[in-house]
Automatic annotation (TrEMBL):
Main location: membrane
Record localization: Cell membrane
Membrane topology: Peripheral membrane protein
Keyword Membrane part of the UniProt annotation: yes
Domain of life assignment: Bacteria
Name the UniProt record assigns to this protein: F0F1 ATP synthase subunit epsilon
Transmembrane parts of this sequence: none
Assigned keywords, A-Z: ATP synthesis, CF(1), Ion transport, Membrane, Transport
Residue ranges annotated for the ATP synthase F1 complex delta/epsilon subunit N-terminal domain, each copy included: 3-82
Similarity remark: Belongs to the ATPase epsilon chain family.
């Protein structure tokens, strides 16, 4: 099973696609999410979002000031500021 992931900033969609793992920094510490995870809503802290695609590829982004939600194998990350790391 795969996660449907969307990472957006206040200005644009940064990345969307399918992933096997999403790791993000929240105000309470890092959270890792895989398919089948319980629904969650978390406040983002400034830091790195790591997305592992279903093909094993890695996507890295900096994000801050927003939230992460997970429900029904859909992960939505909404950040005030976000950018991919080259």
């Amino acid at each position: 099973m795969a996660l449907n992931v969307s990472l957006v900033s206040a200005e644009a969609e940064i990345w969307s696609g399918q992933a096997s793992l999403v790791v993000a920094k929240t105000v309470e510490g890092e959270i890792g999410i895989m398919a089948g995870h319980e629904p969650v809503l978390a406040i983002l802290a400034q830091g790195e979002v790591r997305i592992t695609g279903v093909d094993g590829g890695k996507v890295l982004a900096n994000a801050q000031d927003g939230f992460l939600s997970m429900e029904g194998d859909t992960v939505t990350i909404v950040a005030g500021q976000a950018a991919l790391i080259a």
